[in-house]
Structures are given as C-alpha cells and as structure tokens.
Amino acid sequence: MSAGKGAVLRAWRGVKKTPWGLGLGAACVAGILMWLVGNEGAIGWVQYVLARATSGILNVLGHRTVVADHTVWSRDFGITVIAACTGIFPIGLFLLAVTAYPTRWRSKLVGFGLGIGGITGLNIVRLVSLYYIGVHLPQFLDSAHQLVWQSLLIVLAVTLWLLWAGRWGHASCRS
Amino acid sequence: MLPAGASARGSAAKIVFRFLVVSLLVAAALIGVWSFIAPVYTKAVALPARVLLRWVESPNVSVLEVRDAELWVYRIVGPGKVAPFVWFDRYTFFILIPFLALLMATPGLGWARRVARLAIGVVALWCGHAVHLAVSLQLSYAATGLAVSGPFLGRALTLWQVGTRLLWEAAPIAIWIGLTRAPWRKALRTCREGARPCRVDSEPIPAGG
Questions:
Q1: Span A5-30, mean pLDDT?
Q2: DSSP assignment, residue A84?
Q3: Neighbours of A50 (CB within 10 A)
Q4: Rg (CA), chain A
Q5: Looking at residue B1, what is its pLDDT?
Q6: Which residues, including other chains, have CB under 8 Å from residue A90's CB and lie 6 or more apart?
Q7: B188 contacts in A (CB within 8 Å)?
Q8: Best exposed site among A37, A38, A39, B93 by fewest CB in 10 Å?
Q9: CA distance B16 to B9
Q10: Which range is least confidently modeled, A25-29, A79-83, B118-122, B178-182?
Q11: How far is CA B8 from CA B185, B186, B189, B190, in A?
Q12: Closest alpha carbon to B95 in B68, B74, B119, B122
C-alpha cells in the first residue's frame, strides 16, 4: 500500500469515529434515500415488488389476486401500493439512526439488514391486513391505514432499533 | 449459568419488551380518543401557521380554515374571492400518537421529568408542524406554477419536497431521541455493566446524559 493511501485510510479511521464522521455517514444515507424517493423508476420497482409479495401471500391464504402495475386486485377489493406505502421513510430513518450510532461497521451492517428486512416484513403484514380489513371491515379501513398501522409501524421500528442498539450497539466497547 | 453478556442482553431485551408493551397500550388509548384530540391540535397548528404564512408570503394569498379536524387551504384569487387549493385530513397530525406513546413508555423517568419532557416535546412538535405546513404549501405553489421559484428551487424542487417529507417523518423521532437519550443510555448501560440485575429506577439524571 502506498504511503499516501495509508495516510488517507488512517485519516478516515480517525474521522469515522467522530460525530462529524457519523454525521457524514448519516448525510450520505439521507442523500441516497432522497435520490431513491425522487427516482420514479427505482421507487416504482420497490412498489411493484411489495405488490407482488402481498399478492403472493394473499394467494397462499386462498384469495385470487392479481397484480396490475402497483395494484393488488381481486374480485372483492383492491389496494394500490403508493410510494409512501413502501415503508421507505421508516426504513430510511432506521438506517440513519444505525449509521449515526457510534459502533463498529460490522454491527451497523447487521442493523441495516435488520432494518430493511424487519420493516419490509412488517410492511407486508400491514398490506395483507389492510386487504382483509378492506374486504371485511371497510368502515375501519381509513383509520386502520392512517392511524393504527402508521403508529404501529413507528413504535415497532423504534423498538427494533432499541433491540439492535442493546444487542449490537455496544460492540465498540469490546473492539 | 448464563454468561454475563447473555444475561445483560436478556435484561436489555426485557426493558425493550416492556417499553414496547407500554407504548402499544398508550398508542391504543390515544387512537381511541383521537377524534377528540385531532380538532384541538389542528386548530392549534393553524394558529402559528397563519402567522408564518403572513410572514413568508408577499402578498399573503393563503387562507387556512379548520373544519372539525380537517385543515382546508384556500388561495385568494381576486378581491373577496378565494379558491380551494388543498386539504389535510383528520389523520395529518397522527404522528402525535406514536410520539406521546414513545415518551410515555420510556423507562427511567420520574413523573415530573416525564411531564416536563412531554410538554417540551409537544411544543417542539407543534412548532415543527406549523413550519412544515407553511413550507410544504410554498413548495406546492412552486410545483403547480402558482409561485415563482428561483433557479435554485426550480431545479431541485422534488429534492426539496422529499427533504421536507423526510424532516416531517424524522422530527418526532429526533425530538424523542433528544429528550430521552440520557435515560435510555442509563438503562442500557446498567444492563451491560457486569450483567447486574437490571432494574430501571427514577433517579435524577445528570444534565447532558
């Protein structure tokens, strides 16, 4: 390794543990998130994947649903996965919090996986449950969608982050 | 016997689980009374938002009207004439529910500290909502060509809108973290240090955590 490259790496190792380094990492995650939400092609792909996953689960549960664009249809009901329904904001906030937390990068990678996987999983459960509510209790759909599940998703995402911080967040003490 | 680390992790998990249960219970209770909270909070947000709009708009063209828990925005289109522009439904400020639930469920806070933090948090969130309302309206005017946007705003309008949305989503969590960082640090540190029996008490927490 050249002396110049070594000096840059040493400087980076010094910076990445400071609040500035952590802030820089969080700013990068925020930038990627803003790009993703602003990019119709990328966010459209996420919407499509979520619609397919929701439809797949509903079909396993005995419903005959099809996906058209970002909408899950059946004879009884239809739900459209819009950009705000992708969980992109809770996931982004989770990743920001993991990035800004002072711990080892290996622990952060675990946090990224946990956040993306966990919140996406929860979001699919949310979409499936909203389908059922739409079919059986349509009068509660609005409040279940906007009030109950939004609140639940935030509380569960925060709990997931706390579990991560309690389990992996102290790794820096040992390293 | 479990190793110390495993015991500490178990204690931390217990604290987090208790936090989850309490926050879900509080959220459920607040969802139940949301129809009473929403009109009052919407009216409260509209008050400073009107002042902000008068301050940022020249001339002031936005008129805010609260109908029950809905917030209607009209634009002045001529002398004595207004046209509806956008409306915000009764769930617009729902974030108050998880925010209050998280604060109520945070361990290691005595009642006095909890009430003080609740008051500070609600005021901070209320200010944030009023600012967001004013800013997002200006961005909507720019996006629909109703306001002149400079080259800087015009080129990156989507970015500004997404950034504002991100701040809107992040504000309650950021305020909650800011207000409860010290008790959480203390609770989780107590569990880690030597895997002592984990009990979260309400001792005074030194300023600055």
A1: 66
A2: G
A3: 21
A4: 20
A5: 47
A6: A119, A153, A154, A157, B169
A7: 165-166, 169-170
A8: A39
A9: 11
A10: A25-29
A11: 14, 13, 9, 9
A12: B122
B68-78 core/surface letters (b: 16 or more CB in 10 A; e: else): ebbbebbbeee
- CB neighbour list of residue A80: distance below 8 Å, 6 or more residues apart: A70, A71, A72
Quick check: B6 pLDDT over 70? no
Token representation of residue A168: 């992996």
- The one-letter code for the residue type at A84 is A
Q: Are A127 and A173 in contact (CB under 8 A)?
A: no
How are strands ordered across the β-sheet holding A78-80? A66-68, A71-73, A78-80
Predicted confidence (pLDDT) per residue in B126-174, tens digit: 999 999 999 999 888 888 878 776 666 666 777 788 788 878 888 898 8
pTM, 2 dp: 0.81
Look-up: residue for tokens 């617009």?
Answer: B92
The enclosing H or E element of B194 equals none
Distance, CA of B173 to CA of A3 (rounded, Å): 43
DSSP class of residue B205 equals P
How far is the CA of A47 from the CAs of A54, A65, B85, B145, in angstroms? Answer: 11, 16, 28, 29
- For residue B94, the chain A residues in CB contact (below 8 A) are 146-147, 150-151
Query: ipTM surpassing 0.90, yes or no?
Result: no
Question: Could you tell me if B39 and B66 are in contact, meaning their C-beta atoms sit under 8 angstroms apart?
Answer: yes
Place of tokens 């708009």: B57
CA quadruple B139, B140, B145, B149: dihedral, nearest 10: 0
- Domain segments of chain B: what residues? 4-56+93-195
Q: How far, in Å, CA of A85 to CA of A124, rounded?
A: 10
- Considering only CB atoms, which residues of chain A are within 8 Å of chain B? 30, 33-34, 37-38, 89-90, 92-93, 96-97, 142-143, 146-148, 150-152, 154-156, 158-159, 162-163, 165-167, 169-170, 173
